[in-house]
């Protein structure tokens, strides 16, 4: 009787573990839900046209040594400033797919790439394209759930003692346009109406 009870508990435990694994993998592989929220409050911002402009990102005194990278902000965007071993300066988006850790913590390689410090993905310094997608260990497991995705790259110039990066200065405002509706609504409703 004890053996049958033990066998039943073992089967139940195995099924629970299997169900947990299926649920966890489904969370990453299914089609994401797309919720549409429309608000008619005055807080909605209109989308602005794209406007590319060179803006200061990093002081020259904060520029890393060749072979290293650092982070900066330009136009409200997180930017990775990387200097290759030859001294050329590059600007890339500082969010590393697939899990968005900072690319600026990465290793700048001699082959014209910067390597994600956690999953090992290599991105081209010139284009931001993927050169090698999640090649090792945990990277293979996590990276296998996602399509290889590069990072944005930006034009760079030196001016007035700073490294300047060309970004869309309206990108942050356009991104946030749909998130500010109802922020000041004292009734707790996002549509600005009363109960």
TrEMBL record:
Q: Which Gene3D superfamilies does its entry note?
A: Rieske [2Fe-2S] iron-sulphur domain
GO BP: any one term = nitrate assimilation
Entry keyword set: 2Fe-2S, Iron, Iron-sulfur, Metal-binding, Nitrate assimilation, Oxidoreductase
Rieske domain boundaries: 56-165
SUPFAM superfamilies given in the database record: ISP domain
Tell me the superkingdom of the source: Eukaryota
The answer on whether this UniProt entry bears the keyword Iron reads yes
What terms describe the molecular function in GO for this protein? 2 iron, 2 sulfur cluster binding; metal ion binding; nitrite reductase [NAD(P)H] activity
InterPro entries membership: Rieske-like_NirD, Rieske_2Fe-2S, Rieske_2Fe-2S_sf
Q: What is this protein called?
A: Rieske domain-containing protein
Where is the organism placed in the taxonomic lineage, from the top? Answer: Eukaryota, Sar, Stramenopiles, Ochrophyta, Bacillariophyta
